[in-house]
Structures are given as structure tokens and as C-alpha cells.
Amino acid sequence: MLAHYFPIFVFTILAFVVGIAAIRLGGLVRPSHPDRVKLSPYECGLKPIHDLPHRNTVPFYLLSMLFLLFDVEILFFFPWVLFFERSSINGFASMLLFMFILFVGYLYAWKKGALEWRH
Amino acid sequence: MPDSREVTLNFGPQHPATHGVLRLVLVLDGEYVKDTKLYYGYLHRGMEKLAESRTYDQIIPMVDRLDYLAAMSNGLGYVLAVEKMMDLEIPPRAQYLRILATEMSRIASHLLWLAAFAIDLGAITPIMYCFREREILMDIFEEVSGARLTYNYMRIGGVKADFSEKALTSIREFVKIFPGKMKDYETLLNTNPVFVARTKNVGIISARDAVNFGLSGPCLRGSGVKFDLRKNEPYAGYENFSFDVPTGAIGDVYDRYLVRMEEMRQSNRILEQALDKLPAGEILTSDPRVYRPPKDHALDNVESLIQYCYIAMEGIRVPAGECYTRIEAPKGELGFYIVSDGSAKPYRMYIRPPSFINLDIVPKLAEGRLVADLVSILGSIDIVLGEVDK
Amino acid sequence: MIATIMKTVLMVNILLVVIAYITWAERKILGRMQIRHGPMRVGWHGLLQPIADGVKLATKELIVPTGADSLLFLIAPVITLVFALVPFAVIPFAGAPVWQITDVNIGLLFILAASSLGMYGIVIGGWSSNSKYSLMGALRSVAQMISYEVPLILALIGPVMLSGSFSMSKMVAAQEQAGYWFIFLQPLAFVVFLISGVAETNRVPFDMVEAEGELVCGFHTEYSGMAFSVFFLAEYANMILISAIATLCFLGGWQRPFPTVGFLSFLDVVPEIVWFSLKIGFFLFLYIWLRATLPRIRYDQLMYLGWKMLLPVVLLNIFLVGLFKFYSIPLLIYYLITFFTTVGCVAWCSKHFYE
Questions:
Q1: In this predicted complex, what is the ipTM?
Q2: Chain C: residue nearest A2 by CA?
Q3: Is the pTM of this model over 0.90?
Q4: Between residues 340 and 359 of chain B, which touch chain A (CB distance below 8 Å)?
């Protein structure tokens, strides 16, 4: 069983090697003449006015919470979906119930304005 | 400010969406714009001051560099001011040629606006189609004036050169094909849900605001104010043409887009009529105060030679006084205020560049919107930095 | 073991060459759509252009801006590339096992997991650049991910319901056995998958992460030279990946068109890998076509699109598949039902999109 995953392991290593080699090997041919202006972060040709903020407003904070919830709920789909082909209508009905509850929660979140951006 | 959520960000001068070297300093909360400050002057050349040390003739090529996308309109606005002060009669053919030139200029300017606006929104194809048609216009301009961008075509008392038969044929062809090409752009944009979503209900200017902020041109008409100097204060013979003044419904970005699209159609109509009615005759007034005889003529005839040298060396003397004229440039009301002390150089010249004044409403529109909306609003105002920075 | 490594090396190489020529094809097709020629100078019709581009990028200075976290800054593109390439390990390119590196029984899950990890590269790259525009791009990519990921996974649940396996080769086998491609049974899921797939690859109209008109270049504003090109490779690898998943899950993988129609059996002489490539090519063309046609969507609009439109639509799709399974509706009638539902949903969504 695990033997199936060995090629993936090899592939990952190879992909890493390709990526790192692409960046490192370029160092053999590319020039390097850094200076202060060239190295300054891009801000439309002027000196940055302030440093990066330490905190950032995320107007979709509530939505990302919902996203986590939904992602977890999708997990419940996975085992069910594998047996869907072999299951009876009861299996489908119970999943439908689950989906219905999910959908009601979703509608509630929508009506409560959780899908809107908070600003 | 380590604990503040706000970011102060330079947006421009080197930014793809600022159409040149406009600089905005944005105070952002996340990606919401809390405050916008406009900084001008990266392209400032001191046009108004420069004008004081040039003769009236020498100013014509200079004003071409104001709104370099519609140089014909700038030239017309300026010469109209001088002609008004001198009270000159313009031959009818010259009038028509001026209208042909400025209306083509309007189409060219709007086409470039459309191309740049679409690019700002991320649609990369319309620019190619717009430039295909703009190229025809540029070729016509090259044919009649010798230049493709800054034409130096208007003259005090007329125009520099007559339209050749070749140029007229090209315009005729252009007028015929252009409405069909307009459909190309509209299929790409009008019914495109993403485009509509990015422009509808964004940057709404109420009619009241539009008037209070002194907006003009498509930005004013997009808000539903039916004010077009070509209709309200006809100049250069616009009273002889029939065309409609399109207005928008609510004044959002989409309305300004529609207004400009319709204006191109109307300009096309004006071109059509001007071609049909184009009278024969002189293209430059023979008023001795401004008339400069053709060079070969001047070499044969002593009076002509004296006249030629007089105008060339002394310049055109404009009677003392002051005047303000305004025309409907593609971007709005372009005004020239000239004070003359009777010499061959203006004592003072003031330029009212439309996009400089239209730009003032951007901070108000952008407040509380996303950066993406700011880009769309800025695009819909149609600025050109040569004019904003003078 | 040796064979596996050889196959892996071959696969990565082929992918890189294919990506290089997709960039060429993209420029050519975009050129044609925009009444111009595209690259013409380097080689016949610009065929050597990708090589010239590669040389140019390799010889360009790599700039790490001051204040940037240089380790993270340089590792970020590699992360994106790795997670764009790794899923290809489980993608079958044709019927025989030799055309697949490994056939794991959770293939689809693995692909979803790996390809969503690629987003980390973008976030890390944008964050470690110490540039405001990059940071905004990185934040946008988070926003983007939380808006399309749920519909994307739910759209793929549909095909899995009918095939009963997460293995990609079994997915095609199920379509072979059933005699119809899943696109006909669930066009809704297909459309949703296409939209969220484009969002996953950060391509137009969902390229808010780069958004040159707004954020200059978004998360890779500070990247130059090879580091930039690694991001670039990853983007195109992702495009192929999404096209491959769409082909395998909805278009019957390497099967010829109309696999059950007998008199078309002469089409069988065309090798399976060719059919597979043609289908992938179709999707890649679609990507380029979208790029030529659509403006950029605003990123709150993508979120509304994902949550308020795509999500209910995919749930509807799962419901419809269940109906099909348990109430033996004739195939033709079911086709019609799903077809009209899809047309209705698309029409409704595009009408209410800007409200």
C-alpha cells in the first residue's frame, strides 16, 4: 500500500530540486549589482511613506470563519461519497438531511449578513 | 505607527493606473480607501508662464502639449480666444476644417480613453481594436498636418493647410466604417457581466455634486446634466450641425462610459455632415493684422514681402484687453483666459484644463471604496497628465 | 524503483517543456484574438521564443528587497512550484498503468490537498517581500481561496458520487463503464468547477492577486529573474493540472468522443494520450480565451460569486445526482433536466451578478 506513495515522495523531492536549482543555478550567469535604491521595496518610484503595518484589516473575517466550518463539513461528505454508489436510498436521505441542515445554517448566515464584508 | 491598522501608500507616479505621473497618497484600511490626497506637478512645464515670453503664434504648438491626446481641441480653444480679442472673421471652409479636425480629435481621444479604461479594469483586448481605428485617424492627421500627435494645425485666422483629397476620402471611409467598429467594442464590454459589475453603481456623482465640483464634459453629462458648450454656447460654427447631447441616468462609471460611447457616435454624425456641407474657399483670413502671404508670393512682390516680414518679425499684435473663451474639449470645458497689453506677447495667460478640475472629485468618490473601485473611478474621469500639470 | 525515478524525471521535463510552449501558444492565440501576430522574430513564427525568454530570465538580476525575509522570499516560489507539480504524480495520461506514475486510491483528495497548499507560496512570497503592494496581493489570495475552495471541492464530489472512488483512473473507468461522460450528467458541477478552477489558478478574470492595474503586480511585485519565472511556471502547471482534472472527472479522460457510438470506432486509431492532450488543450484554450475577453473581477465580488451563487448551485447538483441514482429517471429526460437547470442557473447568476 505504502509503495504507492513512494513515487509521490520521489516526485516531491524532484520538484523541490527543480525549483531550487532554477533559482540557485541562475546565480552562475546572472549579474548582481545591488544598490540602495534598487533594493528598496517598490512603491511607485518613491520612498515608502511608512513601514508595513503590523496589523491588517481583514473585512472578510467572518466569512473565513464560515469557510472553516464548511471545510470541516465537507470532510463528512468524503466517507459518504465513496459508499454512495452502493448505498440504499436511506443513505442518501440521511445525507440529504445533513445537507438540509447545512443549508439552513448557510441561509441563516446569509440573512444575518455574515456573507457581507464587515467594514 | 506600529499599532495602527492604516497603511499610507504611494499610488503613483509610477503606477499603471495613474495614466502617467499622477500621484495619489492613499490612506488604506485593509483595501478600503479612507483618504486620498492628490499630488500634481510631475509633468509641470509652466505653460502659462512660458506663454508670457512667446508671441501669439508661437503659443499654438505649445498648447498642443496640454492634452496631447486631443491636440486639435487645444489649438482651437487657444486661437478662438485670440480671434475673439482681435475680432477676426474666419472663412467658412476654415470653420468646417476646424470642426472636422476637432471632432476627429474627440473620437481619437475617446478611443484612447476606452482602451486605457479597459486595461485598467483588466480587459486587455479592447485596446487593440481601439488603436486600429485610432490609427486611421492618426494617419489622416499626419496627412493634413504632418504630425501624428502634436499637430500645430490651427492658425490665428484659420488653419495651417487644406485637407487634401486623399485625407477627405480617408475621412469618408472612416465615417462609414466607424459605427460598425463601435459595435465591436460594445460587444466586448456592454454585455460583459464582469465589466458591468465593475462599473455599475461605482463612483456615483450626483448632478448636484457634479455642478458643485465644477465638472465638465462627459463627467458632468454622465450625471444627467445636459450641458454641452457646442450646444449651449456654440462656437466655430457648431450651430450649423445637428447632433444629440447624451446624458447618463445616475452618474456612475458605467454612465460615463455610455456617454462617451454615444459621444463618439455623435461626433461621427458631425463628421458626416461636415463632409457633406464642406464649402470651397480660403482657409486663412486675409485680415492684414494676421495674414502672412505664401512664401513664393512674398518673394515676387514687395508689399507681400513687407507684410510677410512684418508678421514674422513683429508677431501678431493683439489689442489690449482680456477675454475668456471656452470650448467643449473631449475631456470637458477647456478655457483660455488671455490678458493682452497690446504687444505681440500675451501679458498673462490662464488655462482651465478640464481634467485637472474633474480630478478634484476623486477623493470624495473613492472614500470608503476598494482600491479596485478607485482604479475604475480614476479611469472613468479620463485624465491626461499633460493637461493636469500644465 | 529506477523506473519510477526515470518516469518522474521524464514527467517533470515534459511538463516544463509543455509549459514553455503553452506560453508561446498563449501569446500567439492572444495575438490572433487581438488582431496582431504575437511573437514572430525568434525562430519560425517565434517558435524559439520560450527559449529566448528562459535565457533572458536566467540572466536577469535577482533582487531581494531590503527588509525582506530572504529565506522565505526565495523559498516561496519553490513551494508554489512543488505543489503545482506534485499532483501530476497521480494523474493518468492514458489507460495503461504505464501512463501514470502512481495510482493511489485517494488521488483526487491528494490533488486537492496539494494544490491548495500552493497558495502558501503566494502568501509567503507576498508577505516576505516587505512591500505594501505584495502584502495586499497576498491578502487577496487568502480572500480568493476562501471564496472558491468550497464550491471547487463540492463540485468534484459529484463525479466521485458516481464513480465511487477517489482514484483518478477509476474515475475514467466509471465513465467508460457507464457509457456517458459525467459532464452530461452534471453540467452544473462542470460549470462550477471551471469557474472555481480558473480562480484557483489566479487567471483572468480572477487575477486579483496580481492585478497589474491595481496592485502593480500583486504578490510578485518584488520578484525578478528566475524567482519570478518559477512563480510563472507554477501558474501554468496549475492551469494544466486543473484542465487535467476537468478532463478526467467530466470529459471521460482519454476516451474518444462518443465512446458508445459504434460507427465512430475508426477514431480508436488515435492514441488515447492524444485524446487526453486534445481535451487538455481545449481547456487551456479556454483559459486564454477568457484572458482575452474578460476584465478583472473585484475581490469582494468573487467572494459573493463563490458563496452566494456557486455554493447553492453545487449543493443543487449533489441533490440532482442523488435523484438520478435513486429514481430511475430515463437518461434523456435527466440530460434535459440538468441542461436546463444549468442554463437557468448561469442566466440567473450572470443577471444578478452585479447587484
A1: 0.85
A2: C104
A3: no
A4: none
